[in-house]
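Lecture notes, continued. The same structure-token format from the folding unit now serves as the input rather than the output. Read the line below as a description of shape only.
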């Protein structure tokens, strides 16, 4: 596997590594971020997983010139490692479209799987003003393309004029530990005290990043309007979005290292998903057909979810009845969604668990590998 980025903060990549290990494949991971403690903690008992850290310098803050030169340094190190370790049965699992530019055209001479994390019509070297498109040729030569959502697979097939539909591998996280519903909170006494104080409350939980794409204020207003016993808890990978809030219906929890964040998730009554399509480095369709790993983390504990109306999520809710969509980011609509779930909680909760059990990630990844190996023959 090759991934440029912090692989320990990339759940889809971690799921593939751990699952391939379970399936008794020898897995060699080539990445550019280094954290000895996370490597030891996560893979201590996995003798068939090996990490090679090729650099830890490359980052978004570097100048275009620094990025460009460092990219070629990383590329040289990656191929030196791969060529030393691979044999005729080896496959290269490339995670994220942006990783392709670090591998370059030498990748085309190998058997590889292209695992896309975001929906993007074209990939570029560096910023988009450098018009070196690299998507279609690498897509057409791939032994398999993996998308995380069904509609994304069809869109990618159409955009890149593919002969076959990409495989769909949803972002269901690997269940590395057994964490029970209403788990005790370990390693953080302050959070443990907070969650103890909320044990008789109905926790409306958001967990994730803060961005323009993910508005949170309407949820706070809705919870305030509903009043006790509802509380809004935001477990944020970033600063407190409401630092001046003085009431007792909102609580901020700073970033918690996975998988310990799931201890907090286990206390949720309802989970929040929030996505607003905006222009960014990816296609605007990326948000419309979102594939959040958080929905799987909520459903791990039978927690129903609420979300703004997006095609991908609405289709899931209609099929499994594990959540409710609201039309607009308005206080009353969010209140109605929460009340709807509250009044039919057992039904939604059971459906959430059914959704979690609907996907066997081991079988899905095993199927992808078997299909690729058949092509090799």
């Amino acid at each position: 596997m090759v991934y440029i980025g912090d692989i320990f903060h990339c759940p889809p990549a971690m799921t593939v590594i751990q699952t391939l290990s379970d399936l008794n494949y020898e897995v060699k991971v080539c990445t550019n971020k280094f954290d000895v403690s996370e490597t030891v903690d996560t893979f201590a008992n996995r003798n068939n997983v090996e990490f090679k850290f090729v650099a830890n310098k490359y980052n978004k803050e570097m100048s275009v010139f620094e990025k460009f030169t460092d990219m070629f340094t990383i590329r040289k190190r990656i191929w030196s490692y791969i060529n030393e370790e691979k044999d005729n049965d080896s496959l290269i699992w490339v995670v994220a479209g942006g990783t392709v530019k670090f591998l370059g055209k030498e990748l085309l001479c190998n058997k590889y799987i292209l695992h896309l994390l975001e929906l993007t019509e074209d990939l570029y070297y560096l910023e988009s003003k450098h018009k070196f498109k690299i998507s279609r040729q690498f897509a057409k030569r791939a032994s398999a393309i993996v998308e995380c959502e069904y509609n994304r697979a069809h869109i990618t097939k159409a955009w890149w004029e593919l002969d076959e539909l990409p495989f769909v591998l949803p972002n269901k996280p690997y269940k590395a530990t057994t964490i029970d519903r209403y788990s005790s909170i370990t390693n953080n006494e302050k959070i443990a005290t907070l969650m103890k104080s909320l044990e008789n409350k109905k926790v409306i939980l958001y967990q994730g990043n803060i961005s323009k794409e993910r508005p949170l204020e309407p949820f706070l207003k809705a919870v305030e309007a509903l009043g006790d016993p509802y509380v809004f808890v935001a477990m944020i990978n970033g600063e407190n979005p409401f630092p001046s809030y003085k009431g007792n219906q909102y609580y901020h929890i700073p970033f918690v290292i996975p998988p310990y964040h799931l201890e907090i998730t286990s206390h949720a009554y309802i989970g929040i998903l929030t996505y607003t399509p905006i222009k960014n480095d990816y296609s605007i369709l990326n948000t419309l057909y979102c594939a959040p790993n958080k929905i799987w983390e909520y459903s791990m504990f039978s927690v129903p979810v609420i979300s703004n109306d997006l095609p991908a999520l609405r289709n899931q809710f209609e099929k499994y009845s594990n959540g409710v969509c609201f039309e607009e980011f308005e206080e009353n609509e969010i209140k109605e969604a929460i009340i709807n779930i509250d009044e039919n909680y057992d039904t939604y909760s059971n459906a959430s668990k059914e959704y979690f059990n609907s996907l066997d990630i081991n079988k899905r990844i095993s199927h992808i590998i078997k299909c690729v190996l058949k092509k090799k023959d």
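Point for the exam: The mean pLDDT is 90.
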